[in-house]
Amino acid sequence: MKITKDFLEKYNKPGPRYTSYPPATSFTASFEKDDYIKYLINSNNQKPENISFYIHIPFCPQRCFFCGCNTTALETNEKIKKYIECLIKEIENVTEHIDKKRKVTQIHFGGGTPNSVEFKFLKNIIEKIKSIYTLSSNCEIAIECNPAYLELNDIDDLAKMGFNRISFGIQDFNAEVLSAVNRKPSKYPVEQIIERTRKNNFKGINIDLIYGLPLQTPESFENTIKKTIGIYPNRIVTFSYAHVPWFNEEQKKLEKYKLPLPEEKLSMLATALNLLTENGYEFIGMDHYAKSTDELAIAKKEKKLHRNFQGYCTKETTGQVLAFGASAISQLAGAYSQNFKNPDKYISLIENTGFATERGYTLTNDDKIRREIINEIMCNGYIDFTEIAKCLNFSVYEVKNAVDFSSDKFKEFENDKLLTIKGDFIQVSETGMLVVRNIAMAFDPLLKIEDNKYSKTV
Ligand SMILES: C[S@@+](CC[C@H](N)C(=O)[O-])C[C@H]1O[C@@H](n2cnc3c(N)ncnc32)[C@H](O)[C@@H]1O
Ligand code: SF4
Asked: From CA 287, how far away is CA 268, in angstroms rounded?
């Protein structure tokens, strides 16, 4: 697949990333603790039956100026200990409402920097979950690591604790770029880290990169991509830097440097895409690539790919997401529920009320239809209206009506060979998958593109 800048330019428009439908911008404070409990109970009789745990560790020894995640600079040991105790308390409280016969298929530690806290805390959390629930034989236990704070023997310890997937935040190999964004480079050469990870039989190794950071040029980013290909991890994510200083004050600090121009960013994207697909990686969607032998690439071919707040996964391993910690978002069949973002507030609410719900969203039947359609199009690049109607127990008319479907809306996509429509079947082409956010937006009748609300789709 060769891609041109003109094509990317045409489709580079602001839009949601649809990590959930509706996006988190629709959550409201009228959704409270009791609503969360109601939908936790309701989740026991809904599909998927499996449970995915998300554990949010918000602490970072040093904050990167570009960061869009919910993090706080490293706290005292006492505060971290208290936070972990509360998180374990939250697991116990939520568990009171969950059918313990449901299997756990995923446990994901994200952040923040989960590898920056003492490992006994991570161990306590895993042990707690294992003491209550049965883990499926293919359970994924994953952690996001910043290699600046990782010793080589930490990797052995993580493997002993049961972790079988690991993601390293590299962002860029160029020392000047890292220094400009206030980030320390990896403590050990990345080749050594990956070798140690392979020795410990981790099933999945991922590397995160970002393009669009200050001082990056198309040439420097090409070198970063080539070096990453040389290391040959199973998965690579090339995030487009989302510069949204109106949400994130700290990002303003980057404006004193030369940020890559939009056309330079597009050139970085095109280079990454062309180099990765020429070197054994398949484009999974939304900045994600996987080796063709990787589960995600196989799931994509078999139309069994799925996505949640933690990223891509297979339909087999996904579950309804129970999320713990500050800012964590639970994704249940009938609702989303998000905790307060501030760790102090989180601690005080868990200690005093047992829960820390700040806001959420109850899905209507139309939302459930839209969620299914947008998820299918974003993950598997196809829609079969008849199959979706059958699966969700609605008529084809109701399904099409919920997404306000009319083939006229897709004429331009068809003319640009991004998709084909045959009766009740829509197939997105390989090129269409590159701009699949734009296609998803056409299935979202509630979408209002307000100035500055969303990052651009490319
Ligand atoms: C929780 S961090 C990963 C773990 C660890 N904290 C680290 O930085 O290595 C999640 C990933 O989000 C990505 N990210 C963070 N802020 C971003 C932004 N503003 N735009 C695009 N990607 C971003 C980075 O690639 C980062 O690796
Ligand atoms: S990118 Fe990672 S290390 Fe940097 S501030 Fe964000 S979460 Fe922390």
From this structure: 12
Is the beta carbon of 275 within 6 A of some atom in ligand 2?
no
The verdict on 304 and 409 lying in the same domain is no
Which domain covers residue 385, as residue numbers?
364-443
Residue 3 counted as domain residue: no
pLDDT digits (tens, 9 = 90+) for 109-118: 999 999 999 9
Last residue of a domain, one of 324, 354, 379: 324
Mean of pLDDT over the chain: 93
346 lies in a domain? Answer: no
* pTM for this model (two decimals): 0.94
Residue 94 lies in a domain: yes
Residues 258, 404 within the same domain: no
* C-beta 209 within 6 A of ligand 2: no
pLDDT at 453 over 90: no
**Ligand 1 atom nearest to CA at 60:** 6
Return the ligand number nearest the Cα of 71.
2
Angle between helices 365-380 and 385-392 (to 10 degrees): 130
Atom 26 (ligand 1) nearest CA? 169
Ligand 2 mutation pick, 59, 65, 146, max ligand atoms within 8 A of CB: 146
Instruction: Kindly report the three-state secondary structure assignment for every residue of 275-299.
Output: HHHHCCEEEEECCEEEECCCHHHHH
Hunting for tokens 């996987």 — which residue is that?
Answer: 290
CATH number (domain holding residue 189) = 3.20.20.70
Interval between CA 69 and ligand 1 midpoint (Å) = 7
